[in-house]
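Hey team,

Filing this mostly as a record. A colleague (T.K.) asked me to run one chain through the structure pipeline before their review meeting, and I want the input and output archived in the tracker in case anyone asks later how it was produced. No errors, nothing strange. Just documentation.

Input sequence:
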Amino acid sequence: LFTSLGVFVGGFTLDGARAAAGDLELDVVTGVESLLNHSLLRTEPMAGGEPRFGLLETIREYALERLAERGDGPAVRRRHAGFYLPLAEEAEPALLGPQQLRWLRRLDAELDNLRAALTWATEDGEAEVGLRIGAALWRYWQLRGSATEGRERLERLLGRRGGSKLARAMAQAMVASLALVQADHEAVRRFGELSLPVLRGLEDDRTVACVLGVLGTSALAFGDGDRARALTEEGLAVSRRTGDLMTETRARYNVGVVLAWRGELDEAESLVEESVRVARQLEDFRNVASWLTSLGGIAVARGDHARARPLFEESLAIHRTLDDTAGISRSLSRLAYVREGRDHDTSRRLIAESVEIGLKTGERPGLVFNLEICAGLAAAEGRHERAARLYAGASVLRESLGSHPYDVGWPDPDHEAQVAGLRSALGEEAFAEAWAQGRAMSFDESLDYALAEEAV
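Output structure:
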């Protein structure tokens, strides 16, 4: 038992210990008690109400050496990964309901073990197990602001041979979903379109509806509103075949986002409000928070910042409760935007926190949006050269994300007018010089410039 426990990273439960032990003829509870009594194990903080135990790192390394000497390492690691596969797959739908916070904390506690299982599957193990674990964790990666890690792990697994058609298609679909968070729209299209034929053939309507929504939302980044509408409306039709209320609600929301982007605000607002209502009913708080942000965006598109503000505030409060870092960053930037004309100091504080999170999560649309808010603040304060540099720096990244941002309500109708106002205030020559300086800055330099203390 002792050597088998060396494969666990960051602790384990009794059920995990039983799985690693396999067919060993022993009482795991008695074995764990004996190891505790001999100070070879220690108790760890509980997660989900289950007792947890762990080995000190030096003792764990010794256990792994003994395991290698016995030649049992591959079999124990296979059992270890096999234990975490059903855990990940059970968590995936649970992250969309009233138990999402409990499951987030449970996955947090097991994250190092899940990573170890994925690493084993990628380097030495079975691609099927790794693909299924990685795909099941896509929503967790997104909620924890770890889209980059999740996508990289899935792409490495997809680069290996092996895995069933379904496992590979699911992994491709989830890479597309994570790429959407990163605004890598070429990857969204590539992986989404690779997965769709297989998923359609297997009649996995739930995932087909998800992929159609992802592809439709991504189409907005290329300014293709007709394709976006066709894809999201097909996704809604497919979702109705699943009999799953949450799948249909998400698909309805996607149609609402597309309609808002097209300027059909009344119908869009109705669809998004209905989606929020159902998500509240299902206690799917993460989507409540995200979709409140979209409702706020519709209000912004109408010029109604007073209505948008409480929607963004509620969204931020929910995201903080869930410790949803990417959602926190987005809500902070939206709040900064609607406070821009009223309280510049508060806007700057909100932007600074949003950028700090955004740099960790790698969510580029939020970072470029924060640059644009800083440009608006500078323009409102009469610092026209600074504003022009910031708008120019933001434009470079905006172009790399696609010609049209797909966030509901942004850029707002006066964005181009504000740039034109800067051109008029500075004169053509000074504006062109400031604009060229901004476009010459790297993205990191633009962020540093936006947040520099001397500029506040």
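Quick notes for T.K.: Residues 100-123 form the longest helix (24 residues). Residues 1-71 form a domain with the Arc Repressor Mutant, subunit A fold (CATH 1.10.10.10).
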